[in-house]
Amino acid sequence: ITHIFETHRNEDYVIGSTDLARRSGAKIYHGKSDVMRFEYGNFVTDNDTFEFGGLKLKVITTPGHTFESISISLSDTGFSEKPIAVFTGDTLFVGDVGRADFYPDQAEKVAGLLYDSIFNKLMPLGDHVILYPAHGAGSVCGSGLASREFSSLGYERKYSPRLQLSRDEFIEYKINEHHYQPPYFKQMECANQKGADPLLEIPKPIPMTVDEFAEAIGNGMQVLDVRSAEATAGAFVPASLAIPLNMISAFAGWYLSYEKDIGLVAEDDTDVDHAVQFLLRLGYTRVVGYLQKGLVAWEVSGRDYDSIRTVYAGVIKERMNNHVNYTLLDVRSIDEYQAGHLPNSTHIYVGEILKMIDEIPKEKPITTFCGSGQRAIIAASLLRQKGIENVEVCLGSMAACKKIGCQTVTEDGSKKAA
Amino acid sequence: ITHIFETHRNEDYVIGSTDLARRSGAKIYHGKSDVMRFEYGNFVTDNDTFEFGGLKLKVITTPGHTFESISISLSDTGFSEKPIAVFTGDTLFVGDVGRADFYPDQAEKVAGLLYDSIFNKLMPLGDHVILYPAHGAGSVCGSGLASREFSSLGYERKYSPRLQLSRDEFIEYKINEHHYQPPYFKQMECANQKGADPLLEIPKPIPMTVDEFAEAIGNGMQVLDVRSAEATAGAFVPASLAIPLNMISAFAGWYLSYEKDIGLVAEDDTDVDHAVQFLLRLGYTRVVGYLQKGLVAWEVSGRDYDSIRTVYAGVIKERMNNHVNYTLLDVRSIDEYQAGHLPNSTHIYVGEILKMIDEIPKEKPITTFCGSGQRAIIAASLLRQKGIENVEVCLGSMAACKKIGCQTVTEDGSKKAA
Amino acid sequence: ITHIFETHRNEDYVIGSTDLARRSGAKIYHGKSDVMRFEYGNFVTDNDTFEFGGLKLKVITTPGHTFESISISLSDTGFSEKPIAVFTGDTLFVGDVGRADFYPDQAEKVAGLLYDSIFNKLMPLGDHVILYPAHGAGSVCGSGLASREFSSLGYERKYSPRLQLSRDEFIEYKINEHHYQPPYFKQMECANQKGADPLLEIPKPIPMTVDEFAEAIGNGMQVLDVRSAEATAGAFVPASLAIPLNMISAFAGWYLSYEKDIGLVAEDDTDVDHAVQFLLRLGYTRVVGYLQKGLVAWEVSGRDYDSIRTVYAGVIKERMNNHVNYTLLDVRSIDEYQAGHLPNSTHIYVGEILKMIDEIPKEKPITTFCGSGQRAIIAASLLRQKGIENVEVCLGSMAACKKIGCQTVTEDGSKKAA
Amino acid sequence: ITHIFETHRNEDYVIGSTDLARRSGAKIYHGKSDVMRFEYGNFVTDNDTFEFGGLKLKVITTPGHTFESISISLSDTGFSEKPIAVFTGDTLFVGDVGRADFYPDQAEKVAGLLYDSIFNKLMPLGDHVILYPAHGAGSVCGSGLASREFSSLGYERKYSPRLQLSRDEFIEYKINEHHYQPPYFKQMECANQKGADPLLEIPKPIPMTVDEFAEAIGNGMQVLDVRSAEATAGAFVPASLAIPLNMISAFAGWYLSYEKDIGLVAEDDTDVDHAVQFLLRLGYTRVVGYLQKGLVAWEVSGRDYDSIRTVYAGVIKERMNNHVNYTLLDVRSIDEYQAGHLPNSTHIYVGEILKMIDEIPKEKPITTFCGSGQRAIIAASLLRQKGIENVEVCLGSMAACKKIGCQTVTEDGSKKAA
C-alpha cells in the first residue's frame, strides 16, 4: 500500500487513513476547498494522475456532498486510456445520490453542485463505466441505496430515481429531503479534518467483576448493553443503554458521552471485541471494561436487575380495536412515520428521545414501536433509564402489524389497510 | 491414528470410535464381560501390551463402573518399563470415583468391584503415577469431580474423600449415592454396544422460513430453543423447549423424542452448528432445520410469541418475608436440595418435571428456581409448554439468594442463614 | 442455495454441481444441444426466467464455446426489468472471447456461432450492462484474459481486441488460434456430461513412512512432488513428477494416469490438503498417501535422492556468446515461442515432452527453459524420470534473459535485442 | 491475568513479562540473589504464598541453574493444603536437570546448590507431586530432556538418570558437562535483567522489490534465508545466511549482528511472520524487509544466484571406500561427535564455523555434515558466504549413514559398524 485516497471528509466515523499511513508508509491524498481545509495529507485536483503497473487513476473534483469531494477514474491502460470504472465516494451511490444537507445555509448551491458533478463530470465518462460508490445499503448517508454493491454509470443514468429529475427538480428534492444529524457528527468532522490520532493497538477492555462493574457505575460509567433485544427484554443491568451489537454504528453516537467511561454487557468476548471496534470508529476510546461472564454474573450476585415486557402485534391490534388508553411511541424516522403509521400513535425519533423526554406522557403505559423492534428496544431502555416505570416493547413492530392487517394512516390523514 | 481404546461402554453419549476407525483405518479395542458384549471391535484383557515407538500401553481390567471397564498404563520405555501414567476411564476420577449405579440389583457387588479395582489394581502402580481420567468436572458421571484435569495416584490415595473410606464404608456410600438416569441412557447403551453407525458428514439442518417452521411444528416437529435464558425470557416460539446451548449435553436427553423431527431456534448459525453437534452426540439425528434469521423473523412475521417474567432474588426474599402465597419450584437435584433450600419451596428435579407435572399446583403463580437460573428456564419452558399460564423464572436463583442472606433449611428441617 | 446454473459443460475440471445439489437440495439447470446431452439436471432455454426476491435471472442461449452454452442476465426489478448484469460463462471474457476449438471439424461454424452470440445476443443488452465471465486470467480457456475480474459490455465492445474484428476476420482468427488440449479433458468431458459422482468427504491421504512410500512406488504408485522449483532442484525422490503446488490445475492432467495410485511429496500437511483438492477437481481420486515428514524423512533414511543443477540467465548468455554446444529446451507454448525465443533453442511444449521424448538429443547436456522457470522444472523432472542424465534447469528463464539483454529471435527469423 | 511469576532470569530469549504486564496490568514476581539483581518487578522468597480461588501457590527457592531460581508449588485447597504439583523452572526437567554452567568460576558450588535444591527442597514434597518444568525437549537448556511435557517427582526420583547419582557424582557430572553458549546469551541476560522494552506492536517488515533488496544488501543488510534446506540448496541469494525456519531460535543468535539490518527470504508471508517472531524473541528488532514474491522474483530479475550441490549417504560411503580426498566437515556438537562419527571427518561445531574458518582447508572440496542435514545447510551457507567455492551439503547426514551401515568411530578411536 503506497497511496491512500480519501474521497471526502467523513462525518459518520473516524477515518483510519492516518493509522494505515503510519503502518504502511503510504501517503494520503484528498481534495481541497475553501470551506474546510484538511490539516494532514496531500491535496489533489482535476487531472492529477497516478499510475500503478498497468492501471491509471485520475482525479475528478465532484463537489456537492461536501465542497472538497473528489471522484477517481480507473483505466486499464493495456486496453485503453479511457476509464473502465470510477470511484465516486459519496457523490453518486447505487440507486441514490449523496446527502447535501451539511451546509444548510447554502442548500440550493450545494444541491446544484452535486447535480453538476454527476451530470457534467461523471456521466460524460460513458454509460459503460463501472461505478464504485463509497457506501452500500444501510448507511446513514442515503436511504434509497440499492443493496447491490456497484453498478454502471449508464444503468444509474437510466434507472436511478434521482437522476430522472431535471436540475431544478433535483435541487428542489434535495433541499426538502430530511436527514438526521446525530450529535457525534461534529466530533467526527473535527477528528477527520485534523487527521485522527493513530491507534497503536486496539484497546482491550478489562473483564470486571460484578462488584467492580457496580462500583464503576457508581462513579459515572455509562453501561452499554449490546445483547439482542430479546435478551435485554429478559433482564438487564438497571439504567443500561441497550443497543443491539449491529446497531452500534448507527445509533451509539446519539447517546454516549465522550467524556465518561463506558462499560459493556455482551453475550460473549467476541461480541465485546466487535463492540469495541464499532465504538472506536465513532471515536469512543473510553471503553474501560466489560461485565465478566456476562449478565449471568450480575444475576447470581443477588443484585436487582431490570426487564421490559414484550408484546406482539396481535396484542397491539386488539388494543386498537378495544380503544385501550396507552401511548404507542413510534420511534422511526419522520419519513418512515409519514409513509404509514398506526392511528393514534405518538412519534418521536429514536435519536431524539432524550431531547423530547418531557413531551412523553408518563401517567399511561408506554409501548415503544419501530420497524421491527430493534430501535424500539433502544427507546425502551432510554425510558427506563429516565425512570419511567410502565414501559413495554413491541418486538415485531410495524412489520408484524402490517402482516396481520393493522390499519395504517399516512401523514395527510388518509387511512388504509396495510 | 492406528489404535482406539475404549475404557468402557458409555451411557451418556454416542461414542465416535466407529467413525474414527472408518476414517483412520485404526482398530478398536475394549474390555469384555459376561454381562454386556460389544458387537464390534477387539477384546483385550490384563497384560495385553501395545508398543508405539518408545511408549508402551498395558491393559488393566478394572470392573466396577461397568463390568467390562479397563484402565491402561503408559510406560516411557526409554526411562523405565514401569508406568509413568495410567488412563482410568470412569473407574477413578480426580477427586471422586466412578458411578456404580448401573446394575441396581447387584449394587453391593459392583461397589466392591470398584473398590478392589482402585485399591488392588491401580494403587499398586505407585504414588508417583500420573492419573488421566475420562471425565473432568461438569460430567453427569460424578458430582465431586475436581476441576483439575489430572492428578497422581498418590495424591488421590491421600486426599480424595472417597478413598479415605474403608471397603465397607465405601460400598455403603456407593449404594446410597443418588444419580439420575435420563431416559436417553438406554438409547446410548444400545448404540454403544452395537457400535454407532458412522456419520459420513455432519448433517446440516436447512434454514426454514417462518412459514415453513410453523408448518413443521404443525406436523409434530419439536422446537428446541438454545438461546440464553434471558433471551428466552424475553420472547420465544410458543411451546418451545428452552435449553441454553451449553446445557444441551446434560439435559436434552431428558425431553426430546428420538421419533420426531427437531427444529432449532438459535442466536446465529454458529450456535446452530454447535447445537447439532451436541445433539448428534446424544444420538439425535433428526435436526431437520432451524429458524432462518432467528427469533426476529418470527417476531416480524406477526405471529404470537411467548415470554416469561423474570424475578431477581430480592423479590423472592421480600415475598418470603411477606408470606406471599405462590409456588417456588426448586428444580435442582435432590442432593443439592437437601444440602440447603429456601423454606416452603417445592422440589421436583428438572429432569422429572414432565413425569411429575400433575403434582404441581396450577392455581397459584409458579416461580422456577435452581442454582443459578439456567435449569430454571428449562423448567419454565416445560411448564409453559404444558399450558400452565402463570410462570416466572428466577434468574440468579439460589446463588443470588445466598448472596443477599435468604434463610435456608437443610433436609432435617434445621434452618440457617445462608 | 436453491438453484445451480451451469453455463456450459466444462472440459478442464470436474464440476461440483452434483455435490452442491446433494448437500443443499438445490436443482441444477443447464443448456441443451443435439451434440452433447447432459445426463442429469434440468434444461433451460431462451427467456426462461427465475425470480429471487427482487432479482430476476433470464436465460440467453449463446452457443459457440460449446453448443449448449448459455448466458444469464440479471435484473434488479426494484429499479428496472432491464438487466444490470449478465453472466457470460465461457462465451465472453474480460479482454478476450471463449475458445472455439472443441469441434475441429466444424471450426468455422462454431466460430461464427460465437461471434453471433456475442454481437446478436449479448451486446444488444446495452453498453451499461456489467459483465461477469466464468474465468479470470490464468485459465487454460483463453490467453488474452485481463486480470480484472469483470467489465461492462460497452467497455468490451469498444476495447476488447477480438471484438474489433469483422465477423469474417473473427472467424479467421479463431480458426487459426492455437490451444492445447491436455489428455485429461476427455475424462472431464465425460464426467461432466454424466454428472460427477458426489464426494461424501474429501479423501485424506494417509501419511506413509519412507518404507511404505518406497514399497508403493515399487508397486506402481506415481510420485507427485508439489514443492517449489528450488526445493525440487535441491533434492527429490528419484523418478518423481515435479509440479509446484499452484501449477497442478494447469499441468497435472498432462501426465498423471487415472489408473494408478498417486503419492505426494509436499512441504507440509497444508500443502498436501491443497494438492488433494486440486487433483480432485481434475478427477484424480487415487491420492493414496504422502511422504510423512516430507523429503527430510527420505533423506535421513539413507536412500538415494536425485537433484537437478540450476543455472541463472548470466550463464545462458555467456554460453551463447561462447557458442557452447548444449540443448536449450524451451518448453513454453508455441505462441510464446514464436513471439520471441533465444537463438538455437529447441522447442517442445511442456505438455508434450513425453510424446516427443525421442526427438530430444541425449548425448548433449540439456537445460530446460520456459517463461520463469516453473514449467522448466516440470520438464526437467520428466527428463530425469525418463533416465536422461545430464539435465539442468534455468530458474528465471526467459524473463531473466530479457532483463540482462539476451538476443531473441521471432519465428520469421529476425533477431532483436530483448 | 493478575500475577506473572518468573522462575529465573533467562539467557536464551527475551522474556515477554514486561509486555504482558503492560497489557494485563498484572504484577511480576521473581527471586533475588546477590549475584544478579532484577531491575524491575517484585521479589519473592521461601514460603511467600499467593491464593487464587481454591488454588494456592507457594514459593520455594531453588538456586543452582541460576542463583535466583525459584520453584513454585501448587495446592488445590479444596482437597489439601499439601501441593498437588510444582513448577520447577529450569531446576528440574523431565529426564534431566538444568544447566549449571553459567558461573564457570563457581562450577562446583552451583552444581552442589542444584543438587541440594532438587533433593532437599523439591523431593520432600512427595513422590505423588506432579512436575511442570519450564522446558520440553529441543531446548538449548538440556540435551537429555524427555519428550513428555511433565512427570511426577517420584518418577524422576526413581528413573531420571541424573538423579541416580550421589551428590559427588552429580557435581562431577555437571562440572564436566559441555554446553555451548552462543554470543547472543549476553544480550539476553542484559535485557532480562533490566526488563525488556515492551513491544507495542509486532514490527511488520516491508515487502522489498529485488532492486530494493539488492540495494539494501549493498548497504550492509544481512540476508537470512529461512526456507528449507532443499530449497536453499537449489538456489539462494548470494552470501545469504541460510537457517531453516524452525531452527532460528536455536541458531540465529550465533551469527546475526544486532547492529545491522536484517532482510528475509522466505517461502511465503506466513513464514516471514514466524521468522520475525522467532527473531524478536532473540532480541533482533531490525528485520526491515523481506524479498517480495520470494526467490522467484530474484531469479526472474536476471541476477546471479548461488546454489549448493547435495549428496546422499550412499555417495559418502562410496567415497570412504574409495579413499577420495575431500573434507567431510562434521558440524554437530562435540558430544554428538565423540559419541560416534565417520572416520577421517573434521569437527567444527556449527556455531563456531566463523571463528574457526581459518582452520578449514580450502583447496579440497568440502562436504558439510551433521545429524540430518539441517545444521549442515547452515554451515554450507556460511562457507559460501566466506567465499569458499567447492562446497556440498549431505542431506540425511549421520542418520542416513547409519542406516546404510557406514563405519563409525568413537572418540577413543575404536571403530564400530553403526
Describe this protein's structure.
Chain A starts with a strand and ends with a strand. The first copy, chain A, is an alpha/beta fold and 418 residues long. In chain A, the strands form 5 sheets. Chain A has a 6-stranded mixed sheet with strand order 4-5-6-7-8-9. Chain A has a 5-stranded parallel sheet with strand order 10-14-13-11-12. The first copy, chain A, has a 5-stranded parallel sheet with strand order 15-19-18-16-17. Chain A has helices at residues 17-24, 107-122, 153-159, 167-176, 184-194, 210-218, 229-234, 248-255, 269-281, 294-300, 313-322, 334-338, 374-385, 397-403; strands at 3-6, 27-30, 42-43, 49-52, 55-61, 70-76, 85-89, 130-133, 151-152, 206-208, 222-225, 241-242, 262-265, 287-291, 309-310, 327-330, 346-347, 366-369, 391-393, 407-409, 415-417. The radius of gyration of chain A is 24 Å and the shape is globular. In chain A, helix 2 (107-122) crosses helix 4 (167-176) and helix 11 (313-322) packs across helix 14 (397-403). The longest helix of chain A has 16 residues, at 107-122. Chain A is built from 14 helices and 21 strands. In chain A, 47% of the residues are buried. The A-C interface holds A 76, 78-80, 82, 84, 95, 126-130, 146, 148, 150-155, 157-160 and C 76, 78-80, 82, 84, 95, 126-130, 146, 148, 150-155, 157-160.
